[in-house]
Amino acid sequence: MSKLTKRAQANREIAAKANAGGPVAVDEAVKLLKMFKGPKFDQSVEICVHLGIDPRQADQQLRGSISMPHGVGKTSRVICFCQEDKVEDAKSAGAVEAGGEDLIKKIDGGWLEFDVAVASPDMMRDVSKLGRQLGPKGLMPSPKAGTVSPDVVTAVKEYAAGKLEYRNDDGGNLHCIVGKMSFSEEALQDNLNHFLALVEKVRPASTKGTYVKKCVVSGTMTPGVQIAV
Known about the structure:
Radius of gyration: 20 Å
Order of helices and strands: HHEEEHEHEHHHEEHEE
Largest sheet: 4 strands, antiparallel
Distance between the termini: 38 Å
Structural class: alpha/beta
Strand content: 15-25%
Shape: globular
Number of strands: 9
């Protein structure tokens, strides 16, 4: 039996035991998650929450940003659309590129080597020209996500340090990275509880019935453990 097969079999057995009694508390879920046999690389830990929202209704769509108490173990490549007087400050805050018309032309030419785009409000008229390039990849700056801000320097600093954007998918699910498998149990618990508190905070007033239907945490290459919410 190969190592992969042995690992998969071991994880299936752990998962069966973990989920046999139904959803568990956050601290127990983290303990179980760390029991899974994983590959040599440091896996990301992700939470998926299935919500009782209607994604077709504009007032029930969820989108925003979150900074985890202990970070998520990764940084992001951030660019900043801003006026010339903010370029050096944005770069000092962690932007890999910053500027106005020249940066727009660079992206229009096909350059997309970044993870997050931040913009000042006065730049959005010009940035909107990049809708075809940025829109399909989810990279268009947005006030809801906090990536359109009059304080672009702070926005760059936060996103470069691992601040994440979240938004529901068409099935009413929210996915978010909450850390790395190498994090301590306490750090993962804090991050998970922080995200779950946010989910409750942004609950749309128009939702009916059960809001949080299911919540599962997993590693990049592990089965999931269901959390009781």
